[in-house]
Amino acid sequence: MKSKLNDGLKLGSINTPAFSESMYKELPALLRKACGPFMKSETERDIVLFSSAIALSACFPNVKGRYDNDDLNANLYGIAIGPPASGKGVGKYGASLVNEIQSQLEETNVLASGNYESEKIKLKETKDKDSGSSNKIAKPNYKSFLLPANISSTFLIKQIKENEKLGNFIFDSEADTLATVMGQEWGSGISELLRKAFHHEKTQLGRSGDNIIINIAEPKLSVLLTGTPGQLGGIIKSTEDGLFSRCMFYMFHDNPVWKNVAPDRSSESLSKYFNDLANEVFAIHQTFLADRFEYVLSEGQWELFNRAFKWLLEASIAEYGKDVQGMIKRFGTIVFRLSMIFSILDYYENKMEGTTIQCSDRTLRLSLNVMRHLVIHSLEVFKKVEADKRAVNRKEQFLQSLPDEKFSTMEAYKAAEAIGLKQRMAAYYLSEAVKDKILFHSHGEYAKV
Predict the structure, then answer these.
(1) Which residues make beta-bridge pairs with 17?
(2) Quick one: which of 370, 367, 93, 64 has its CA closest to 224?
(3) Rounded to whole angstroms, how far apart are CA atoms 331 and 367?
(4) Does residue 188 lie in a domain region?
(5) Is residue 138 included in any domain, yes or no?
(6) Are 48 and 94 spatial neighbours (Cβ–Cβ below 8 Å)?
(7) Residue 155 and residue 210: Cα distance in Å, rounded?
(8) Structure pTM?
(9) Containing H/E element for 114?
């Protein structure tokens, strides 16, 4: 369906656009190289760009820009959503751009652990000679840039604190890993932590058993997940959930075509190709750890930015209603951060000097072009989440209308008819309720458990 929002964009089978060819020509060199092996597939190249940008957003903890009088780093959250075996798995290549940063930290951990063991042996020998010695050696803390999605909220806070100066990146190719964790008691605080970390809000953890309070002044965290449409509901329960408006989405549905899987002997493996790019990213990462940098837009660029988002907000509300305004307003933060990432790469590739990183007009236009595409994806996710919520409410209404005593299938269908629910959906809800052990079914009769 055409609208003011998607006018001029090439829409896919579920009304979500692929990034335009012209946009790829404007990308910084590193991102063009990352997407290069996938240019024959619109979906794959888009997901590699999407995942690469999010992975890179975690790499610059010393670069800040001022947005609405708040100091922001580049950190982004994103979820790529598509059917099984549809190409979203290439997101792992974008995520792998940070592998060398992690490898270097692991080497540091091994050295610190070795030094600790050596010092322990020396201390023991000293104690053997001098029984009055009470010196203790602090065990080194393990540092990690990459964090698993399968993690408790307590441990996540501890790790973000440990890596506060370096930043952190969570990646998982199965979105329901994080969804499962968030559904557990020990992971129930993760949604709140993610919402706070998006704006670098101060986070605290207090545990009486440890008798400590952990304070993180400015948590820096980037998150990339890929998954199927069915996995989304475990993470985003509602469009009113603040996590929804803090995420970028890329949602697609590819046509069922067989891909040529024969290896291309004329080119190197993707693993080797991305290992080389990861080394390049490590060098960029080290450059921007060496000092503190400020990212700025000119007055004219801010005017263009504000005009673009004023139009986007008005057009989105006109088509989808006022409930989308929170998402659109947070999209401003996301686009600002995207422009920061592109500008950092330009600064490095052009060997610029000084600690001020100036956005170029080309980069701002590129970022606003990305916004035009991604906002359609987010609005389609908005429609899906709202539809899923209505379906859940309808199911609950049906189950509540069923008799408290034993009842037959025909009696269930009558209850469904009374609330305007079709027989086919009633049968589906009955089957799901039995699987979920909400209802017991035996010999043609049902009973509430």
Answers:
(1) 11
(2) 93
(3) 11
(4) yes
(5) yes
(6) yes
(7) 13
(8) 0.83
(9) helix 99-129
CA dist., res. 4 & res. 9, Å (int):
10
**What digits encode the pLDDT tens for the residues 158-216?**
888 888 888 899 999 988 888 888 878 777 788 888 999 999 998 877 665 566 688 88
By the 10 Å C-beta count (0-12 exposed, 13-18 middle, 19+ buried), 129 is classed as exposed
Other Cβ atoms within 10 Å of 310 Cβ, number? 10
Copy the structure tokens of residue 269: 């493996």
pLDDT digits (tens, 9 = 90+) for 333-382: 999 999 999 999 999 999 999 999 999 999 999 999 999 899 999 998 99
Contacts of 273 (CB under 8 A, 6+ apart): 37, 267
Among 290, 319, 338, which residue terminates a domain? Answer: 290
Q: Please count the structural domains in the chain.
A: 2
Structure tokens at 57: 């957003």
Angle at 219 (CA atoms; ends 346, 60), nearest 5 degrees: 15
Domain region containing 424: 402-448
Q: Are residues 406 and 268 in the same domain?
A: no
**Is residue 48 very low, low, confident or very high in pLDDT (cuts 50, 70, 90)?**
very high
CA-based nearest residue to 245, from 323, 135, 147: 323
**Alpha-carbon distance values, 102 to 60, 106, 408 (Å):** 14, 6, 59
282, pLDDT greater than 50: yes
Query: Amino acid identity, residue 356?
Result: T
Q: How far is CA 242 from CA 72, 308, 309, in A?
A: 18, 23, 20
For the chain, the residue count is: 449
My answer on whether 414 and 280 are in the same domain is no
Block residue for tokens 């069915």: 230
Distance between CA atoms of residues 351 and 386, nearest Å: 47
Q: Is residue 371 part of a domain?
A: no
| Residue finishing a domain among 255, 290, 325 | 290
Instruction: Judge whether 399 and 416 are in contact, CB under 8 Å.
Output: no
Look at residue 325 and tell me if it is in a domain.
Answer: no
Give the DSSP letter string of 326-387. Answer: HHHHHHHHHHHHHHHHHHHHHHHHTT--SSEEEPPHHHHHHHHHHHHHHHHHHHHHHHHHHH
pLDDT of residue 19: 92
Q: Which two tokens stand for residue 438?
A: 């909400």
pLDDT tens for 415-445 read 988 888 889 989 988 998 999 899 999 988 9
Q: Which residues pair with 216 in a beta bridge?
A: 203
235 and 112 in a common domain: yes
